[in-house]
């Protein structure tokens, strides 16, 4: 997850550098997502949603705006990343799975989140 602050142009300007670093040093199949955080602060916004979407489209990666403070799209971002990672993971038999299941919490208890996706 490449996260920038929608109220700080400098953090947005760093995204291209971070993407180059990922391309240079990570495996080819790494999952990337662009996140514009602090979407609740429209009065201080420097980076429009359209600019974030355009950058994500340019690099062929998903985009979301979030607010950690107001819990906007936080779970959605993590569930989407998990979905994309699992989509790239080769199919395995049930007894060989990695144990990653976004619908379950520790102790294999069902999450009480019903509208997370």
> For the terminal residues, how far apart are their CA atoms?
18 Å
Spans of at least 5 consecutive residues with low confidence: 104-117
Regarding CATH, which class?
Alpha Beta
Question: What share of residues is helical?
Answer: 25-40%
Oligomer class? single chain
The name CATH uses for the topology is Rossmann fold
H/E order of the elements? EHHEHEH
CATH superfamily: P-loop containing nucleotide triphosphate hydrolases
Describe this structure in words.
The protein has a three-stranded parallel beta sheet. It is globular and about 45 Å long. The two termini are 18 Å apart. It has one domain (2-88): Rossmann fold (3-Layer(aba) Sandwich), CATH 3.40.50. The protein is an alpha/beta fold. Helix content is 36%, strand content 10%. It has four helices and three strands.
Summary of the model, kept short:
By secondary structure, the protein is an alpha/beta fold. Helices cover about 35% and strands about 10% of the residues. It has four helices and three strands; from the N terminus they run E-H-H-E-H-E-H.
């Amino acid at each position: 997850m490449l996260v920038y602050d929608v109220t700080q142009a400098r953090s947005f300007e760093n995204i291209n550098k971070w993407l180059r670093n990922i391309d240079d040093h990570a495996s080819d199949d790494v999952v990337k997502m662009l996140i514009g955080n602090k979407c609740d602060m429209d009065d201080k916004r420097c980076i429009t949603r359209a600019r974030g979407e355009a950058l994500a489209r340019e690099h062929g990666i998903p985009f979301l705006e979030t607010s950690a403070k107001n819990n906007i799209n936080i779970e959605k971002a993590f569930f989407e990343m998990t979905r994309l990672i699992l989509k790239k993971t080769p199919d395995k038999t049930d007894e060989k799975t990695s144990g990653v299941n976004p619908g379950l919490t520790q102790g294999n208890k069902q999450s009480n989140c019903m509208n997370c996706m």
